[in-house]
Amino acid sequence: MVAGLPAVPAGNVGRVPADPSPRGPGETPLRRASDRPRGAEPSPPSRPVEVRRSARRRRTVSAYREGDRTIVLIPARMSQAEERRWVSVMLDKLAAQESKRILGDGELAERAERLSEQYLDGRARPATVRWVTNQNTRWGSCTPAEGSIRLSHRLQGMPEYVIDYVLLHELAHLLVPGHGPEFWRLLESYPRTERARGYLEGVVAADRLPHLPAARRR
């Protein structure tokens, strides 16, 4: 039996995370507060975050790693609500940039083991976890009888919390084959399930958008 996560998630869950276009490496122009999707929960940081305000900084926000901390630079005039929003946005952007380093199959297997221990009490023990290039309609799939998990290469470069969600989804299928209430209860403890599903739905929606014709030269 083969179970998998389709590239078109069922239902209308979550929204696309804010991903403003940067002006330079790690730097993002300010936009309206409404640019952030409603109902999107802030990303829990995996390391300490230090926010530095600058009176000279007026229109940009930037972030970078410094040792075991993340430094976020913002304009001094920002409100606390704007600060929280932009810290979340920049953490997501840094995570996406860092995840562009492609994980090898061995690293995927280690990641799957950690996720199983953290969220499934170590009960899901895949025999193999690997990338594949022949899954264009599913983000992930698994064969419970063999204990094998396969992730689509299309996930490479996406934020780590999205890859973790797909991995955890397939790990749960090793324990429960269908998508009934028992299956979804296994994913309740992962705090970014809704956010990851919203991100993947956004990717699918963007793929469906018609390409605008090139501007006619005069």
Distinctive features:
single chain; 218 residues; alpha/beta; four-stranded mixed beta sheet; elongated; disordered C terminus
Description:
Helix content is 33%, strand content 20%. With 218 residues, it is α/β, with parallel strands linked by helices. A hairpin with a 4-residue loop joins strand 7 and strand 8. Helix 2 packs across helix 3 (160-175) and helix 3 (160-175) crosses helix 5. It is elongated, with a radius of gyration of 19 Å.
Task: Summarize this entry quickly.
The chain is 33% helix and 20% strand. The chain has five helices and eight strands, in the order βββββααβββααα.
Can you lay out the helices and strands and say which pair or pack?
Blueprint: E1 3-6, E2 27-29, E3 49-54, E4 60-66, E5 69-75, H1 80-98, H2 105-119, E6 128-132, E7 138-143, E8 148-152, H3 160-175, H4 181-187, H5 193-208
H/I helix tally: 5
How many strand elements?
Answer: 8
Describe the biggest sheet?
4 strands, mixed
What's the Cα radius of gyration?
A: 19 Å
Strand content range: 15-25%
Order of helices and strands: EEEEEHHEEEHHH
Quaternary structure = single chain
What number is the mean pLDDT? 76
Distance between the termini: 58 Å
**Which strand order does the major sheet show?**
1-7-8-6
Sequence stretches where pLDDT stays below 50 over 5 or more residues: 8-45, 211-218
Helix content: 25-40%
- Helix- and strand-based class? alpha/beta
C-alpha geometry: elongated
